[in-house]
Specification:
7% strand, two-stranded antiparallel sheet, single chain, mainly alpha
Length: 291
């Protein structure tokens, strides 16, 4: 158990791992998810306050070959080498040397991590493979062939057909249903590519989930989702962002009956004149029909 004793970073994280090993799996996962957010912020603070890495950002051509080793050394000093893997180190080094995060291209999520993620989905939601935000029940055609092979290990039951109520749903287009793997803490927010920071989303929710840098910026995402798009952007972008913001704020559960996204698909119902997240009520399709 954790005590009031002052621990260095390495001892602290080792103590948390020991705690995770002594509690139920669901509690351990909640601890690891929170720990992932702490680690992302800790690494970011350490690297951005480092004088040598400031020189890297100023003269990337000079330090291009050294930046990765510098990042690796700083992560080791924090006692986080077991949490920040080689892919993350490479990505962070590229962020620091490029100076423009959106130009870097994150590595695809490996099959081992996807398998772990599918196992968690199976444990939490049973045999139906669903979007973690809106609960869309994936059909076999929504999943790429490589990921279908991984899903077969858990004998997931796909939806036999498209829910006709989704077809009639004017807010969630029926062509945005492909299975995506999403970083909960965005990659631009230095979120690591670890199972604790990944979730299964449908294409609609993944594209509507505004990519703010940190998990504590939900309020910013909620407000930004109420801003209409610029003239050059499709109007459906604003709709998608508002619906997903409402779903995330409601913690992916029906506001009428409490059904969660791992049980049934959710959507939004407009309750006022303005189409903004706080004027949308999250409902499962059964409750929408009863309105």
């Amino acid at each position: 158990m954790l005590t009031n004793e002052v621990l260095d970073e390495g001892e602290f994280f080792a103590a948390l791992e020991a705690l995770c090993a002594s509690v139920e799996e669901s509690e351990a996962r909640a601890i690891r998810i929170a720990l992932t957010s702490v680690i992302a912020r800790l690494v970011e603070t350490r690297l951005l306050s480092d004088q040598q890495l400031r020189e890297v950002a100023r003269y990337p051509d000079v330090y291009l070959e050294q930046s990765r080793q510098i990042v690796e050394d700083r992560v080791a000093e924090l006692g986080l080498s077991t949490y920040v893997d080689e892919n993350d180190v490479r990505y962070l080094a590229r962020l620091l040397t490029s100076g423009v995060p959106h130009r870097t291209r994150p590595e695809p999520v490996g099959t081992e991590l996807i398998s772990v993620l599918f196992r968690e989905s199976y444990r939490n939601g049973g045999r139906e493979l669903r979007c973690a935000i809106c609960g869309f029940h994936f059909r076999e055609g929504d999943v790429s062939e490589a990921r279908r092979e991984l899903a077969r290990q858990f004998e997931f039951v796909y939806a036999a057909e498209f829910d006709p109520r989704r077809v009639a749903d004017g807010l969630k287009p029926p062509h945005k249903t492909a299975l995506h793997i999403d970083h909960v803490i965005p990659r631009l927010g230095w979120g690591p590519t670890r199972a604790e920071n990944l979730q299964v989303l449908c294409e609609f929710c993944n594209q509507g989930k505004l990519s703010f840098r940190r998990g504590l910026e939900n309020l910013s995402g909620f407000a930004a989702a109420s801003v209409p798009p610029l003239d050059r952007l499709p109007a459906e972008w604003a709709t998608r962002q508002a619906v997903v913001a409402a779903l995330m704020t409601a913690q992916s559960s029906c506001g009428a009956c409490g059904t969660r996204a791992d049980q049934r698909e959710l959507t939004a119902v407009v309750q006022g004149e303005w189409f903004v997240p706080w004027m949308l009520e999250v409902r499962c399709y059964d409750c929408v029909e009863s309105i």
